[in-house]
Amino acid sequence: MAERSTAAVDVADNSGDKPLAAQAAQATSDGVDTQNGRAADGPMPDKDGERKNAAPAAAPELHSGHKLARRYRLEECVTRVDGFSSWRAMDEKLRRAVGVHLMPADHARARSVLAAARSSALLGDPRFVQVLDAVEENDLVYVVHEWLPDATELTALLALGPLEAHEAYQLVSQVSQAMAAAHREGLAHLRLTPSAILRTSTGQYRIRGLAVNAALRGITSETPQRADTEAIGALLYAALTQRWPYESDAYGLTGLPKGVGLIAPDQVRAGVHRGLGELAMRALANDGATASRQEPACTTPDELAKAVAAMPRIRPPEPAFAAPPEYQHTTYQQGSYGRLAQPGTATVQSRPVPPPPPPLQSRTGRALKWGVAALLIAALGLGSWQLADTLLDRGSQKGNSGTNNTTTPGPEDNPKDPERTPVSIKGAAEYYPDGNPQNIDGVPNSYDDDPKSFWRTYSFDDGPVMGSYKQGLGLVFDLGEEQDVSAASIALTYGGDHTTVTLYAAPSLSSSTPLKSMQKIADGTTSKTQLDIVAEKPVKARYVVLWITAMPKAGPSEFSRGGFKQGISNVVFSRNS
């Protein structure tokens, strides 16, 4: 099979590598990706190794500090190649980092880039790095996308070594499922390289450049599903072996030996998981490779995702714990009590202990036993008489007073819930410590007392518990000043099994503070559209994080497709009066 690329790299978004903005201008002439330090290419080579011809226009001459749409301030150029440039920028309206691709409006691929970006934005799948804006303005075309500060490129992960089996399983499972969903909507990637795959700090794999990366470089395919499936197979192969499954080196990985063809992963590296290795070969067996003879080739991402799902689940490795110090048993715990010491050994109990004395069998002993028994019988009789006398006395008192046998409890026996006063909310923001917001513009809808408006989440494929792909998501509210928070009443958009919410006292509206450093106020779970949470004791806070860790499954709506999702239409905090 002809190799797909020798040293192909994607447009650098935010891999976490050290950017080299000072070398950006040189990148066009020397072909170096300024962020990742790898050889940058133009369009991908076709099956015959020839690049597609597309005359690139000159990249726009912009500088740090330039502002697009009076909103996106360019801060650092990370790539300048093939007639376009990529930047890290700041969205001054929402005060968050974003990535921006820029090219002249008369660039040969400007129209296709705009179309690809807008199609990708409509997908709205959180497994992909989201396109936030696609605009033609002032002779420029620019595409704005998410910037993930906590994410690491697969390229960087593979530089450290092959992935262990569970991590490789998560990679191929998440990527194949995401691409199967994209192809169902008619979208292909066509440039699924290690630098297009990002792993977040929560263990979720995100795919960047859906449709856009291929459009930027003029890449097309008559068999897009087959091309993306083979690319996923190459990613899995590299994850298992730390080798690129073609003859030429690429993405910092050494290629296979020349002339031997495609060989199974377990022949490249010992200890490779057999099922995953077979799966990689099935995905790569598209151009006549026969290393996987027992199972048919996977030619679409959906087929590959089903093959992954049919595998026995690979569990994560057990955490390694340091062995505790050996516990020194005492002589008694070792069982030597009442035993003779073994010759030549030193024990605390060096002499045999005489057996316990026999039970009392003499005349005096028998008399003592009967005496004790008599005392016990007398004590029981006296206690029963006193109890009966007390009951009879109470009964006579009640009969004389004319009251019934039901005692009316006093206020101390049936305490009432304390009265609570609502706390006004002065402002709010999304809380997204993983760098992936859900619906920033809809935050004010979460406390506006309008049941028809709500802040919403994306729609996810797994649930109700979110831990497998995202630790949680939520909002942080500003109460204006520090005060006691005793309870919260939360109006939800979707009911069903089930929604779980936890409240935390936060130091600010920022998402940079981790939950583990915050004080927990209370939590609650419901299957309805109303959740009332009451704290065991009030907690002083000005800022309160509302953190969702489980969401019910709901059907499609005008805002999102069907899946596990939630919306919040109104939140009311209160304190004890």
Query: What's the CATH superfamily of the largest domain, by name?
Result: Transferase(Phosphotransferase) domain 1
Report the uncertain regions: 1-56, 288-292, 327-353, 395-414
Tell me which CATH architecture of the largest domain applies here.
Answer: Orthogonal Bundle
Arithmetic mean pLDDT? 78
- Quick one: biggest sheet? 8 strands, antiparallel
Number of domains: 3
Radius of gyration, in angstroms, nearest whole number: 35 Å
Strand tally: 21
Explain the overall architecture:
This protein is an alpha+beta fold. The chain has 3 domains: 21-146, Phosphorylase Kinase, domain 1, CATH 3.30.200.20; 152-310, Transferase(Phosphotransferase) domain 1 (Transferase(Phosphotransferase), domain 1, Orthogonal Bundle), CATH 1.10.510.10; 420-576, Jelly Rolls, CATH 2.60.120. It is built from 10 helices and 21 strands. It has helices spanning 24-30, 110-123, 154-160, 165-184, 212-216, 224-241, 265-268, 274-284, 301-310, 363-401; strands at residues 67-68, 72-81, 84-91, 96-104, 131-137, 140-146, 152-153, 197-199, 205-207, 243-244, 254-255, 420-423, 427-431, 455-456, 473-492, 499-506, 519-526, 530-550, 553-554, 563-564, 567-576. Strands 12, 13, 14, 15, 16, 17, 18 and 21 form an 8-stranded antiparallel beta sheet that branches. A 6-stranded antiparallel beta sheet has the order 1-2-3-4-6-5. The protein has a 3-stranded antiparallel beta sheet with strand order 7-8-9. The longest helix has 39 residues, at 363-401.
